[in-house]
Amino acid sequence: MSDLLKKSAAELVELLAAGEISSVALTQACLDRIAEVDGTIHAFLHINAEGAIAEAAASDARRLRGELLSPLDGVPIAVKDVLTTIGQPTTCGSKILEGWIPPYDATVVRKLREGGLPILGKTNMDEFAMGSSTEHSAYGPTANPWDITRIPGGSGGGSAAAVAAFEAPLALGTDTGGSIRQPGAVTGTVGVKPTYGAISRYGLVAMANSLDQVGPVTRTVLDSALLQDLVGGHDPLDSTSLPEALPSLADAARLGAAGDLSGLKVGVIKELGGEGWQPGVITRFDESLELLKAAGAEVVEVSCPSFVHALAAYYLVMPCEASSNLAKFDAMRYGLRVTPSGDPSAEDVMRASRDAGFGDEVKRRIILGTYALSSGYYDAYYASAQKVRTLIQRDFDAAFAQVDVLVSPTAPTTAWKLGEKLDDPLAMYKGDLATIPANLAGVPGISLPAGLADEDGLPVGFQILAPARADDRLYRVGAALEALLEKQWGAPLLSQAPALEGASK
Ligand code: GLN
């Protein structure tokens, strides 16, 4: 593997600026790596080889003229296949959108283009972002680069695996209940769910609009900050987008990397941990807490009693919104159309197309959502879930009145075996226990690698949560912890991942 691939995006920016590498050479190195390992990892659903090289050549030409478009101009990126891209298919991991090429770019994709980042391709995901393992993709699962018999997390397993396998220095994901942070945790990468509204959702094919958020998937905290700085900000095309800009997140990350956390108050969420959590996860989490203390932070325990109901509330709110969102896939305007024999009515065509086009998990959630929204049940289920949501928001408000950030392990376990939880949806859902509260309340969260669990040698994620609009705190504290951990390890965690040389051959 080319040494170039191991560099962070921030390091690549410097090499590009110094003229030591070209964007074309860098992009080609990524494409070569994809050719080498992606037959095994299957992080990508679509590879934009020619397009990416042309975009890289344009970046190199701009650099010669001294006309850079953004700090990340020339650094290649992979994009989750739930974000629309002109000229590249957008399937959302579903058969119902196989071959669909959108006529418009998601705002974040437009910002990548306007920032000069070559787009390597589209990454694999659970169908319509429903899942925690990427096994619900209609195009086959993605493998975890640490152990290819294990899941890379989900729904954004493709973006996380692409970054963990050094196929791409940067990726974009989306997080409705943890789909950026949980894949980050189990692949040893960094993933951020920004404050709801901090990044435009325009062109993000909606699963649950009130929960969905686009965010960065990277190998370092600073890289995530650079990416959120680039794609964030107000968008008139998204009515839920925040009117004001956040402070520079890259500045916050650089400040944090100095490692001084004196005066910071950290709250450990009592309800997220303990019985049922993998011991190796808890051990690494506790060690990180000690590092935070050594850096001057005060660590206290905080109770968020309503968090125990978060999973139940999420699995009502999300399917309700999803069942409504997915109604538009009716074979009439675009997407798969199956015409039954005989003299089928429009409804027969819709039924046959949706039956053939959606997978089991999507159908399960459509049925769940439709049931919970039906008259007579609406108050008992959907309205109650919304009340729980308010209670969770109040727990966050009360906690943030006492502490600056909240922390927990990102996920209760490390990566499980492919197939292990596929027939047990509830067991799969439980992987999101720690990530879901942030989506229900709209607050931002980051997951960064905290080391490898003793039992299985697999990555453990450390989650930091901050109040809405205080994304800079995640980056400051995250960069501090990352610097302290790397000082202990002597190198980034991912340098210990299997090399996968020649994996596809
Ligand atoms: N794993 C969660 C689910 O299945 C979260 C998915 C997501 O964040 N898109 O719904």
Quick description:
The protein is α/β, with parallel strands linked by helices and 505 residues long.
Keywords:
16 helices, ligase, Amidase signature (AS) enzymes, 2 domains, 11 strands, glutaminyl-tRNA synthase (glutamine-hydrolyzing) activity, 505 residues, binds glutamine, eleven-stranded mixed β-sheet
Straight-line N-to-C gap? 14 Å
CATH topology name of the largest domain: Amidase signature (AS) enzymes
Shape estimate: globular
**CATH architectural designation of the largest domain:** Alpha-Beta Complex
Radius of gyration: 21 Å
Main β-sheet, in a few words? 11 strands, mixed
SSE order and pairing:
Blueprint: H1 9-17, H2 23-41, E1 44-47, H3 49-65, E2 77-80, H4 107-115, E3 119-123, H5 157-164, E4 170-174, H6 181-187, E5 190-193, E6 214-218, H7 221-231, H8 249-257, E7 265-269, H9 279-294, E8 298-302, H10 310-325, H11 346-357, H12 360-373, H13 379-402, E9 405-409, H14 425-429, H15 436-441, E10 445-452, E11 459-465, H16 471-489
Parallel strand pairs: 2-3, 2-4, 7-8, 7-9
Antiparallel strand pairs: 1-3, 4-6, 5-6, 5-10, 9-11, 10-11
Helix pairs in contact: 2-3, 7-8, 7-16, 8-16, 10-12, 10-13
Describe this protein's structure:
- The chain has helices at residues 9-17, 23-41, 49-65, 107-115, 157-164, 181-187, 221-231, 249-257, 279-294, 310-325, 346-357, 360-373, 379-402, 425-429, 436-441, 471-489, and strands at 44-47, 77-80, 119-123, 170-174, 190-193, 214-218, 265-269, 298-302, 405-409, 445-452, 459-465.
- The protein is α/β, with parallel strands linked by helices.
- It folds into two domains: 3-307 and 390-496, Amidase signature (AS) enzymes (Alpha-Beta Complex); 308-387, no CATH class.
- Strands 1-3-2-4-6-5-10-11-9-7-8 form an eleven-stranded mixed β-sheet, with helices on both faces.
- Strand 7, helix 9 and strand 8 form a beta-alpha-beta unit.
- Helix 7 (221-231) runs antiparallel to helix 8 and helix 10 crosses helix 13.
- The protein is globular and about 70 Å long.
- The two termini are 14 Å apart.
- 58% of the residues are buried.
- The mean pLDDT is 97.
- The protein binds glutamine.
- Glutamine binds next to loops.
